[in-house]
Amino acid sequence: MLSTLLTAASLLLVPTLAVFADEAWNVDYHFALLGAPKEETSFFHQPNPSSRASLIYTLSEQHALGAVNPRDGSLVWRQLLSSDGIAYRNSFLRAGEGQDVVISGVGHEVAAWSAADGRLVWSLSTEGPLEDVEILELSDGKETAGAKDAIALSSGANPTVQRIDGASGAVKWQFIIDGSDAPYQLSASSTQIFAILIHKTILGYVKLRVVVLDRVTGHKVDEYSLSSENELSTTENIVSVGANSASPMIAWTDSLYTTLKVNVVGMKSMQSFDIASHDDSPIEHVKVHAPYHVNSLSHFLVHYQTATSHWADVFHINLKNGKVEKAYSLPKLAGRGAFSTSTSDANVYFTRVTRDEITTVSSASHGVLGRWPLNTFGVVAGIGEQVEPIHAASEVSVKGDTVSAIRTTILLSTGDWVMLRDGKGIWNRPEMLASTMVVTFALPADAAALVQQLEVEAHSNPVAAYAHRVQRHLADLQRLPSIIVSLPQQIVKGFLGTSADDLTASDTFGFRQVIVCATREGRLVALDAGSPDKIVWNVNVADLQPGQSWEPYLASRIAGVVEVSSRAGAGIQYNATNGQPLAERLPVVPEGPQVPSSQVVLYTVHDGTLEASYNRTPAWAFTPMHGERLIDMVPRPVNDPVASIGKVLGDRRVLYKYLDSNIALLVTAQDSMGTANIYVLSTVSGAIIYSNVHTGVDLTIPIASIMSENWFAYSFTNEASDEASKGHQLVVGELFESLVPDDRGMMGATTNFSGMQTATEPFVLTQTYQIPEVISKLAVTRTRQGITSRQLLAVLPDSNGIVGIPYGAVDPRRPVNRDPTKDEQAEGLVRYTAVLEFDPKWFLNHQREIVGVKNVFTSPALIESTSLVFAYGLDIFGTRLSPSFSFDILGKDFNKLQMLATVAALAVATFIVAPLVMRKQVDQRWRFL
Amino acid sequence: MLLLTPLVFATLTSIASAARLTVSIPSSPPLLPNPASLAPSTHAILLGPPGTRYSAPLRRDNTFAFPDLEEASYLLTIQSRDYFFPPLRVDVTKAADGTQEQTIAAWQTFRGNEWSNKGPQYGSGKGTLNIQVSPSSQKDFYQHRGGFDIMSFVKSPMILMGLVSVVFIFGMPYIMDNMDPEMKEEMAEMQKKGPLSGSNGAASQIQNFDMAGWLAGKGSGAESGGTVKKR
What we know:
The complex is a heterodimer of chains A (929) and B (231). By secondary structure, chain A is mainly beta. In chain A, 11% of the residues lie in helices and 42% in strands. In chain A, a hairpin with a 5-residue loop joins strand 20 (249-253) and strand 21 (259-264). In chain A, helix 2 runs antiparallel to helix 3 (462-477). The radius of gyration of chain A is 33 Å and the shape is globular. Chain B has 2 domains: 8-138, Immunoglobulin-like; 153-198, no CATH class. Helices cover 30% and strands 28% of the residues of chain B. In chain B, the strands form 3 sheets. Chain B has a 6-stranded antiparallel beta sheet with strand order 3-2-5-7-8-9, with no helix packed on it. Chain B is rod-shaped and about 110 Å long. Chains A and B meet through helix 1, strand 1, strand 6, strand 9 and strand 10 of A and strand 2, strand 3, strand 5, strand 12 and helix 3 of B.
């Protein structure tokens, strides 16, 4: 009750800065992403067995499980299965035929999710990490009606096979596999379950051991090894293990890809097939595509890929005698190919996607059932870059002997996930942005060109400047015809629309900045903040080998140019508008630990000691106390303009801010004691100018920190104690030269100041607020001149949002235990309350759910009132913020029609009244004189 | 999906008969008549001592399940896109009578208050506890602008002043015409005496101000009045 009262009070007093209903969904933009979908875990499935409408389910590389509407590419639901960013080696997603659940397996967790709305049905944690999850398709009468059971294979100390009840998630039986062999995969038939294990021989080769279990009891029935001789050296050469009776085979190749060996599960014999080489270049990988549905024909396709071409062979399995025979081949085609398997009743169809066409064949014969030419995938790629399909999933509808309609989702080499219907692009999800590592804002090259020209004029002699200007205007005249043509349209638009809509024509406000994102795959992707729906350009800048990573650093020091550099490597520059490289390719340098650096001071972490150096000469080192580890360091931003050096009080006196561009906030943790230490350092001398300690801190939960202007903020989670309540706290501290108004303290008389010579310590006011949830990252709005008040941006991972806290709401000068005086009220200070509830109106994302945000980047627009905000991580979210309201631009609230109507009404009134007044004046003269 | 920190996971598997908490969201009209309408991202977080944190997603039957809880004092928060839920305190303690089963109890708690300041109890049980938590309010994300309202427009002082002057301009002659002659005379007298009216009144002086004469250095007052009379 008390808390609600306090909330109500704080809401009444704090001036609300909110998302306006008419700006939400228009000003902000959001890509709800999943990350690059994995081939084995992406498929079409009907969430409701009674209807034919299907959704696309995927479990991505980032372990985001989601359902996508195939019609428009929108996300139906999504669950993040690894919130702390742990990358698990294996992840599984299975959907039983005619089931309304999908079953995921990530890490130690098997979970069933309602396919229609993404709610959890059951979950089960296994002792060891999961190696495989399958669904028992063929019923044996032991299941709960309507739900198919799942089986899970986990490794660890006790490799286990478990049969899980499909309705409740309870374990029906479990079998612990003896021996030290590594569990690999599972396969099931109508009566038996096969656990395939990897046995390492003394010579370093790999043998496959198969343990056969009874489906109903879980007892071991049989066990045998496949004599794979000495050809199988690593598990990477195992091409496929079929999951069920539709594809009951294990296939592997030798390391040079010359023969393909196939064993029908349950049989001890195997058959080998020579892999014909079609090409000079060696085969890079071999992939098996087999149907998942139990009722379908046991036909499978083997896809061979070389660097320049690909082809495929289709095999049939005779289930009666366990014979595998090659049925037909699909011809070699240039480039990469992607194959997908679809079923319709018992028939199996293979769809092949290449650079320039989609073809569908039946598994029974090689006759092409449907062919759709592809002109383009409709995605943006680098100049001269060939867009290749990586993998695909298809849904076909067959009428007679032809495929009447086909829907195919394809992951492309550019990172886009596209949907094609009958060869025509329907939608495109920019999933590569889900792995954004760093971003920067850049002015478009055309806007930058004008700025440069103006600078030229400013810096030359008057005559030359005049000549230059005339030339520029003559050049501008060439655009006159197009402007005249568009003029009527603009006028109409100007009258009917509101001023803030009109972003496409020109960018006087600086809203149309180019946002360049560097992704983990070594690509640069650019968005336009003014029209963020489409990707502007997308180029591959770092040729990363599989498993290689890079640490990009992006900057835009010259307007219109983006510079990307990998760690310590020399940067290369790109045109911000079209992504054309201005130099050659980027060298990727091996990575190492990195700490954010300002341009003046370079920080390195060495043995837990923070070392700072200017121009490569060591300056100072900060060694935390014994047992402390460095968590984070936030220097004051390099470009952090401050309009006023003081705070004007209600009575017109001034409190001077402690403004030092060389200060940084440092957070360290002592795990044994559970304490977090906060230091404010002078980065010139290394002196500690403020420190604080918090006890009982949960150090497994992120501690977010930020430093800007003359204040800092950090948040942490603490345990209940005598002086503190359990929960999450936000601390805001502000640094002043002195706490006496109109007095600059020690620095009063000096005009110059050096942190090296005089040791002035600021007076620090801090205030702690109890907040309702964890903050994982803090950021602050930035405007061009720093006149606009600031807003603290906090990423809330638990409510999937970003909240913009007005600085006034957390001002440490809020009076404690008393009501504000008249002067304080004039400043906008309200009485301190310990609880700071996040008003829903502060949520920048309003009803959108922004998942997995790692960082928030802010950039000033050209007009003072506005700051551009861009959040990235898994999702991409951007908006424009006006922390002091839009005082220099007519916003949506400005109603042009109303203004025009008022003017018209006044004009009419003037015309009507003027003769009356005239007559009255004349009358008056006659009357009184 | 239960996200467990690895440290917790190790301890969890060893305790087989740990406490189980189930939180269900009942239908609570008018705020939330149908809990099935909650977004699938709705989840509950149980924050224990440092290092212990569980997160449980919403189940199909509108519940959150925490299967294995150690003995500790927990803060339970429910996060939903559209609704606020009150924070709860959940205590898992050793049973007083020394039996195997743990006692588990839940109370409302208040942010910014001492941890010992407990609100009404939601329930307590041995080994397992099922509690019901209803949303406290709906989130309203949007600020609505004050749109154009004819009443507020009319009420604004500018418009009011304008309206009054319009009434005077049109109304006064009408009133004057309808007054009886005595009143009219009285009024005329009043106006003559008044400082603003009459040929020597301030208003007429300003109206008939002889700028040229004044600039030429002539005195004001009677002389300027004289020039007016001559005209």
